[in-house]
Write a structure and sequence with these properties.
alpha/beta; 37% helix; single chain; 5 helices
């Protein structure tokens, strides 16, 4: 697939996401590597662009250089962001919430701890990214499967 065609597909897909319409996102492509540059207003928007690109055939990797520039109304102190994330995790994922440590510095969230599955690791980051005021996430959660007694016996 030639470079222009893949870039056009990514740009068309971006235009089809209501939350991303009208934002200043530049797309470059070289050898299947998509690079996003520009500015978005939330971490969720940054994540949506990346997630969309992952689903397009021919995209080998993504360099997501989108900068989150929060509107003034979404600026929040780090303790408020951290508290919101803890509340969401307690509600959405009570079975693992107590194993997750959340650190927030200048709106950047770091997740640490252990979870039993990769899908839970991804869900934790997704839930944390929805908190108002989040600029980015470092997901340092470790997947450590839990084995029941019967499985250990086998």
């Amino acid at each position: 697939m030639e470079d222009q065609s893949l870039r056009d597909q990514v740009e068309a897909a971006l235009a089809g996401i209501p939350e991303l319409r009208g934002l200043n996102i530049a797309v470059a492509e070289s050898g299947g590597v998509i690079t996003f540059t520009g500015f978005v207003e939330s971490f969720t928007q940054r994540w949506l662009a990346e997630d969309m690109a992952k689903r397009i055939p021919g995209v080998a990797s993504i360099a997501n250089d989108l900068e989150v520039r929060l509107p003034a109304i979404d600026e929040r102190p780090d303790p408020s962001i951290a508290q919101d994330i803890v509340v969401v995790l307690d509600h959405e994922m009570p079975e693992i919430a107590d194993r997750i440590k959340v650190t927030v510095e200048n709106g950047w969230v770091t997740l640490e701890g252990q979870v039993p599955t990769q899908s839970q690791r991804e869900r934790v980051a997704e839930n944390a990214g929805r908190a108002r005021g989040v600029r980015g996430i470092t997901n340092d959660l470790v997947v450590k499967p839990t084995a029941g007694a019967a499985m250990l016996q086998r």
